[in-house]
Amino acid sequence: MKFALLVNEGPYQHQAADSAWHFACAALARGHGISRVFFYHDGVYNGTRLGVVPQDERHIPERWSALAEEHGVDLVICVAAAQRRGILDAAEGRRHGKGTDNLAEGFRIGGLGQLIESGIEADRLLVFGD
Amino acid sequence: MTTLHLVNKSPFEKDAFDSCLRHALPGSAVLLIEDGIYGALRGTPPGDRLQQATAQQCYVLEADLQARGFGSEALVKDVQMVDYDGFVELAVAHDLVQSWL
User: Fewer Cβ neighbours under 10 Å: the N or C end of chain A?
Assistant: First the structure.
């Protein structure tokens, strides 16, 4: 079965990002697919690569990146939510003259079209938020 | 068409738990995750309301129950514990998954 996930909250503040990640891992381990994880609202903070986490603590953005690398999960960050919060890929960083970018490995910037597409194409869309 | 309802808020904090119980149709399932597990505790008013709502089967995510210091003995009768694998299987078994955020 093909799952898509929507994550509406940032890491470390709410449990949503953890719950979504655990669900994704369990689904993949059982042979299901995760076609996409869409990050919206404060959820876009899951996609920064500048976070520095104590070594004995879970690194939430890196956990997502690993899912993308190992299982080909499409990690999509909402462009409008991301720009307001300072999450930029290289192209957006250049376009806005910021001189830098901070999008983590395996994430890409997208739009609500990708969320709608997931709702249509996936067998189930699960929402994790606060 | 069956629905899996996800409640992640404590009934002592928000109305999502009671709204869910009022709206969930017979044959649907309710899975309590995160702070939602506080809705299934024995000897509490929300736990009593859950026990009276017999139209839906209720589940609790074990990891979130344990993370809050409770075990299966704290649950009201007929509530089942599931792990994340069980969560996935519940999502597969129902046509829709509705989060009560």
Answer: N
What pLDDT does residue B16 have?
97
Does the active-site annotation cover A25?
A: no
Residue range A2-128 in CATH 3.40.50.720 = no
The type of residue at B46 is: P
Residue ranges of domains in chain A? 2-128
- Top residue of B84, B96, B98 to mutate, by most chain A CBs within 10 Å, is B84
- Report CB contact under 8 Å: A3, B34: no
What is the set of domains in chain B, with CATH numbers? Answer: 3-100 (3.40.1260.10)
Whether B101 sits inside 8 A of A3 (CB atoms) is: no
| Helix boundaries (H) for chain B | 16-23, 45-52, 62-67, 84-93
3-state helix, strand, coil in chain B (%, to 5): 40, 25, 35
pLDDT in tens, B61-81: 999 999 999 999 999 999 999
